[in-house]
Every structure is written in structure tokens, then in C-alpha cells.
Write a structure and sequence with these properties.
The structure holds 2 protein chains of 2 kinds. By secondary structure, chain A is mainly alpha-helical. Helices cover 73% and strands 2% of the residues of chain A. Chain A contains 16 helices and 4 strands. In chain A, the strands form 2 sheets. A two-stranded antiparallel ribbon of chain A has the order 1-4. A two-stranded antiparallel ribbon of chain A has the order 2-3. In chain A, helix 3 runs antiparallel to helix 13, helix 5 (114-139) packs antiparallel against helix 13 and helix 15 (352-370) packs antiparallel against helix 16 (375-402). The longest helix of chain A is centred in the middle third of the chain and has 28 residues, at 185-212. Chain B has 2 domains: 6-94 and 150-260, P-loop containing nucleotide triphosphate hydrolases (Rossmann fold, 3-Layer(aba) Sandwich), CATH 3.40.50.300; 97-146, no CATH class. In chain B, the strands form 2 sheets. Chain B has a 6-stranded mixed β-sheet, with helices on both faces. Chain B has a 4-stranded antiparallel β-sheet with strand order 2-1-4-5, with helices on one face. The longest helix of chain B is centred in the C-terminal third of the chain and has 16 residues, at 183-198. Chain B is globular. Classes of the chains: A mainly alpha, B alpha/beta. Chain A binds chain B through residues 8, 10-12, 209-210, 213-215, 263, 267-270, 272-273, 275-276, 278-280, 282-284, 286-289, 347-348, 400, 403-406, and chain B through 76-77, 88, 90-97, 101, 105-108, 110, 118-121, 124, 127-128, 131-132, 135, 142-144, 147, 149-152.
Chain lengths: 406, 264
């Protein structure tokens, strides 16, 4: 650098202290290092299943895992936004089924163009979210009641839309292609390189700008470790996927939405206000934030993401039937982010937890399928994992309260 | 009238809630660069007076002058737009957000250039201005990216006060700023209040703690049962006289508390 900051430079350019192991452990327990915690959990789960069944960590199975978690992960993206507000949306499963059915019926029975059918299905989700957000906000009904009513009602609409036959089989190549498209090795590597390059450049650029403005910067070694880990993860993922069918479009769609909403929640005014409303709604209101607008838009986004997830599920199943969006889909979509560290109490968490949580839950379910567990055991294990995650969330909250943080 | 130099003046302001007369013809004012302590027993009308000024409860009758010209304050936005900032006792901070995020909550800066298209926040600008603001006030918070929930009561109060200054107000109203604070924390907040005065703000402090009042106030304004019960120069009045005015003992003894303090 040619110039040093002038006299007006803020006095905080000193190096950030390196945390001791004790501090790290405390932050770990308080949930500050949530993402590291989840990655360790995923590694443990993978190790355990690999020891039991050596088909688990094969390229074919891991590719299947990606396809399995795409739908629930997309639904979870919307759920995270609602959880950040401290609210809950119990209708996302039913909405995913209904919107997928709308798309399927328009495309199959009415011969609509697949893109148009998908668009209408997604917009139906947006409309449902608007309705539910309106009921929640203007009548002051608790969100779990509004969306519980929605859960029942949208399931009813699903049956109505499907009509007599009860099942609509999807054959359209564009819709099937959402989960059936795999990219060639070369395309996969190009995407990996572009992605890593973008990550490296934005990380370094951000650090550079902070340094130039005289603000404190994270220590360079930590940043380099982060970059190396991310790059290694991307390269490993692409290598594994390429050795089977290639990088799946479904996985890219999931990561794309996660990245977009990660940006929206952490780098825009709207996202900042979501955290503010979830942290202290009264403070947000006094700061001039329209709580009503934030809440209604978030419910719209949640239902929209549910519709997108439902369409992905239908694409993978090649059909929409009466149980689409039912069963444990709703609970898994909520459990995922919570397992990965998004608080049920609002204001804490990130969109990444939608992806990480879907990986945790998806890995457990996939592994148990490989080991041919009965569904009784599967339900019990998944329930126990969710309970453990909520307990950890509650402990983290208590820890924060004990150190003066609420 | 006595509106000379007063940045904010209330004349004959009354406010009732149903049968309860919370304020009855109160004259009140604050000059730039002056700290006025607003004291009184519970139910004396302190909070109502502040809420009238802050636009939460518009007055039933009376006039409000701001910088000498009559204004109407019918909502919180009117007050903020005029340049009246209020820091309430519960502070209204988001514990899950850091200092910078709290300071700029509701008035976040957007980046220019490519960032504008993406509606990206200008974190660097906000963080720099936070450092500037806090160092102007001599507030020492080492990590402005630490969550406000991790901070002490005094630091939280300082953040809340600093936030009220971002809109460059002319009058700052502080509701019980030292309640529930320890000795050292209280001293920090009182120092901050003095700095607000030295920077030319008109400061109104509601407090129950007369020691704090005398430590910081230039003038002590006593409310009793919705009426003015005294308006003293802080360095010409004893704590006993103020207590007497608060409890009503002085009204009978001296006729009018207004005379007691001298030259207003």
C-alpha cells in the first residue's frame, strides 16, 4: 500500500486476539462455532455408517444423497427465514405437495409448457405465503396455528387438484431433467474452478478493503485455512460426483438458492431487518422497520421455497401423488436447520444451516436405508437426533444467558 | 415569555387519560448545552411529559416551541424529524446484533457502485462511522463487531445513547439512564451525558437518583401531581429542597417552588 490511513482512521486496527482452546470450547458450547460443530457431526455420521456398510461412501451413494436432500434442503431454506423471525411454518410440506400437483396437472393434464407450469406452481406457493402471512400479521393469530390450519387445508387442496386418479405421472423431459441432469466432468471442473476463484477473490478483496479503510482484519492464516478448506471440499465433491454420473443440476439448484439467500440475509437491509425482528421486534419497530412487511415477505418466501422444493421432489419421484409433501417431509425440513444450529427462538442462525442440516438428516436416513433398518427404527433415530439438536440449542441459550447474553 | 435561547419549550401543556390529569398546564424548557433533570415521585407525570415530547402521547392542550417556532408533534416521527431523540429505559437494542448493526438499525447505509445494484450494505462505511461516533463520545468499546447481548449494562446504555445521536438531534431525552447500573458504569454514563452537553445538545434526564441528578444536571425540574413543583439551578439548591419539592412539603412552606431556585 502506498498511503497510510490519516489521522481520522479509527483506532481499531490492532490484531484480533488469538482465542485460547478454553475460549474456543466455550464459544463452541454457546453455538458460535455452529458450522464447525455440524461439519464434525457430519464427519462422525459418515464414519459410523462407513464402518457398518462400505457402500456408504461410494460415489454412487453420495450422488444419491445429493439428489435425496435437494428437495428438503430447498424447503429448509425458506424454513430458516421463518425461524430467524422466531416464527414457524408448519405448512411447508403440504404447500410443497400442492404446488407440485398444480405444476404436474397443468403440464400433464392440460398440456402446458413445462416452464410455464413450473412458474405457476412456484407462484401458487408465493400466493399461499402471502395469504398465510396476511392472516398471521393482520389478525395476530400465532404463526403455528395459521400454518397448522394451512397444513390441513393445503393437503385437502392437493387431493382436489389431483382429482379421481390420485396420481399424476410426470414424463416431461424438462421437469424430469431438474433432478435427472448431470454435467460432464469438464463442466464440473470448470464450475469448481470458477466457484473457488470467486470465493478466493471476494474473501481477499473484502479483507483488502477493510485493511485499506483502517478497520481490523481477521488474521491472514485463519483466512487462508478457510480458503483451503472450502477449496478442498469443493474439489473433493466434484471429484466424487464426477466419478459417478457427474455434478447433478439438482445439487447446483440447492447451492444456488442457499448462496442467494445467504447473501440476502447477511448483506442486505432486508436480511438485517429479519435478524432484528427475530432478535427484538419492539426494538426493530422503534427503529422504523416495518415489521409487518418483513414478516409477510418472509412467509411468502418460505412458501415459495416450499413450492420449489416440492417441484424438485416431484421431478425425482416422476410423479405427484396423494402423499406428496406429507409424512415426515415437514418435520425433516424444520429439523435440518435446527440440528445445524438455527435457533427456534429467533434471531440466530444462517441459511447455510439449511444445507448442512439437510446433509445431517439426509445422511442418517440414507445410511439407515443402506443398512435396511425398519422404518420404526428410522423414525426413532431421527426423532432422537432432532431432540438432541434442540437440547443443544436450549443449552446454548442458557449458556448465553449465564454470560449475560440473551 | 422565558423562551430565550430554549431549543425546546413547552407552554401550558396538559394531558389527561380519562379522568386522570397526568399533566396540568406545565411549562418546561431546555436550552442547548444544558442538562435538565426531570424529577418527581412515581405518577408525577415525568413519563407523560417525555412521551408528549417524543410524540407518543400528543398533548391535549398547550404549545410546543422548537427553536422558537410553534410545532405540532403528533407522532414519534415528528419528534425525530425535528431533532428530538429519546432513549428509553429498556434501550430497545437487538441483543443478537453487533454494535454497528444496532447503531445503524433502520438507517443502514447502502454501498455505491455495483453494490447498489445488489442492494448491498456498506459495512465498511458503517463501521468507520461507528468508530468515529464512539470515539467522539469517548466511549471505549474494543470490538464493535461484538454482539450487544454480550455487553455490560453501562456499555449497552452507551450504545443506546450513541445510536440516538446518529440522527444529529438537538435535544436528547434519557429515561432513567443510570437505573440498574453499578457505580463504575453509572460514572461512565454520567460522563457521557456531560459530553453530550459540551457538544451543544440539550439534554433532558429523567432520574430517581438525586445523587446522579446533582452530579450531572445544570437545572432540576420537579413535577408533582402533574404540575410544576419547582425549577432550580442545580448549584444553588440543596438536595433537601428538591426532596421537599418532590414530596410537596415546600409548596406550603414557600408558596411557589419556582422562586426558590432563583433566576429562571
Amino acid at each position: 500500500m502506498t498511503t497510510t490511513p490519516g489521522a481520522a482512521a479509527p483506532p481499531a486496527a490492532e490484531a484480533v486476539e488469538v482465542p485460547t482452546p478454553r475460549v474456543l470450547l466455550r464459544r463452541f458450547l454457546q453455538g458460535d462455532l455452529g458450522e464447525v460443530r455440524v461439519i464434525i457431526v457430519i464427519a462422525l455420521i459418515w464414519a459410523i455408517f462407513q464402518l457398518q456398510e462400505d457402500r456408504f461412501l461410494t460415489a454412487t451413494n453420495l450422488t444419491n444423497l445429493v439428489l435425496q436432500i435437494a428437495a428438503v434442503g430447498l424447503i429448509s431454506v425458506g424454513v430458516v427465514l421463518v425461524l430467524l423471525l422466531g416464527e414457524i411454518d408448519l405448512s411447508v410440506g403440504a404447500v410443497s405437495g400442492l404446488c407440485a400437483a398444480i405444476m404436474a396437472v397443468l403440464n400433464v393434464k392440460h398440456g402446458w409448457n413445462p416452464y410455464l407450469a413450473i412458474a405457476v406452481g412456484v407462484l401458487a406457493g408465493t400466493g399461499i405465503g402471502l395469504f398465510q402471512g396476511f392472516m398471521f400479521e393482520y389478525f395476530g393469530i400465532p404463526s403455528f396455528v395459521v400454518t397448522l390450519a394451512g397444513l390441513l387445508a393445503w393437503q385437502g387442496f392437493l387431493l382436489k387438484v389431483l382429482g379421481e386418479t390420485g396420481t399424476v405421472n410426470i414424463t416431461d423431459s424438462k421437469i424430469v431433467g431438474l433432478t435427472g441432469t448431470f454435467y460432464s466432468d469438464a463442466v464440473g471442473w470448470i464450475m469448481a474452478i470458477v466457484g473457488i476463484a470467486a470465493f478466493v477473490l471476494t474473501s481477499l478483496w473484502r479483507r483488502q478493503r477493510r485493511a485499506r479503510s483502517g478497520l481490523s482484519t481477521p488474521p491472514l492464516p485463519a483466512l487462508l485455512v478457510r480458503i483451503v478448506l472450502v477449496a478442498a471440499a469443493v474439489i473433493a465433491a466434484v471429484a466424487v460426483l464426477n466419478s459417478d454420473r457427474g455434478v447433478p443440476l439438482a445439487g447446483l439448484i440447492l447451492i444456488g438458492f442457499v448462496l442467494v439467500f445467504q447473501y440476502v440475509t447477511t448483506r442486505t437491509r432486508f436480511g438485517r431487518h429479519i435478524y432484528a425482528v427475530g432478535g427484538n421486534a419492539e426494538a426493530a419497530r422503534r427503529a422504523g422497520i416495518s415489521i409487518t412487511r418483513i414478516r409477510v415477505v418472509v412467509f411468502m418466501l418460505a412458501s415459495t421455497m416450499a413450492a420449489i422444493g416440492g417441484i424438485m421432489a416431484a421431478s425425482r419421484l416422476l410423479a405427484v401423488n396423494q402423499s406428496s409433501g406429507a409424512s415426515d417431509l415437514l418435520l425433516l425440513a424444520i429439523a435440518g436447520p435446527v440440528v445445524a444450529g438455527t435457533s427456534l427462538f429467533g434471531g440466530r442462525g444462517s441459511v447455510w444451516t439449511a444445507l448442512l442440516g439437510a446433509l445431517v438428516i439426509g445422511s442418517i436416513s440414507n445410511g439407515m436405508d443402506l443398512l435396511a433398518f425398519e422404518s420404526s427404527v428410522k423414525f426413532i433415530v431421527t426423532g432422537a437426533v432432532l431432540l438432541a439438536a434442540v437440547v443443544i440449542d436450549a443449552i446454548a441459550r442458557k449458556q448465553r444467558a449465564a454470560t449475560g447474553r440473551v | 415569555m422565558s423562551t430565550d435561547g430554549e431549543v425546546l419549550a413547552l407552554e401550558g401543556v396538559s394531558k389527561s387519560f380519562g379522568p386522570v390529569q397526568a399533566l396540568d398546564g406545565v411549562d418546561f424548557g431546555v436550552r442547548s448545552g444544558e442538562v435538565v433533570a426531570l424529577v418527581g415521585d412515581n405518577g408525577a407525570g415525568k413519563s407523560t411529559l417525555v412521551k408528549v415530547i417524543a410524540g407518543i402521547h400528543p398533548a391535549d392542550s398547550g404549545r410546543i416551541l422548537f427553536e422558537g417556532s410553534p410545532v405540532t408533534i403528533s407522532g414519534p416521527h415528528d419528534a425525530t424529524d425535528l431533532g428530538i431523540a429519546t432513549v428509553y429505559q429498556d434501550l430497545a437494542l437487538c441483543d443478537n446484533l453487533d454494535v454497528v448493526e444496532n447503531l445503524f438499525l433502520g438507517r443502514e447505509e447502502l454501498a455505491s457502485g455495483a453494490g447498489e445494484l445488489l442492494r448491498s450494505l456498506d459495512e465498511i462505511e458503517m463501521e468507520q462511522r461507528s468508530h468515529e461516533l464512539l470515539s467522539n463520545l469517548a466511549v471505549t468499546i474494543t470490538d464493535v463487531r461484538a454482539e450487544v447481548g454480550t455487553m455490560s449494562g453501562g456499555q449497552r446504555q452507551q450504545v443506546a445513547i450513541a445510536r440516538s445521536l446518529l440522527g444529529e438531534p438537538k435535544v436528547v431525552i434519557l429515561d432513567e439512564p443510570t437505573a440498574a447500573l453499578g457505580v463504575r458504569q453509572t460514572a461512565l454514563v454520567l460522563e457521557l451525558i456531560k459530553r453530550l452537553r459540551d457538544q451543544g445538545h440539550g439534554v433532558v434526564v429523567i432520574s430517581h437518583n438525586l445523587a446522579d441528578v446533582f452530579a450531572v444536571a445544570d437545572r432540576v425540574f420537579v413535577l408533582r401531581l402533574g404540575k410544576k413543583a419547582g425549577d432550580f439551578d442545580a448549584d444553588q439548591v440543596s438536595q433537601e429542597d428538591v426532596v421537599a419539592a418532590i414530596t410537596g412539603a415546600v409548596g406550603a412552606a414557600r408558596g411557589d417552588g419556582d422562586e426558590a431556585g432563583g433566576e429562571r
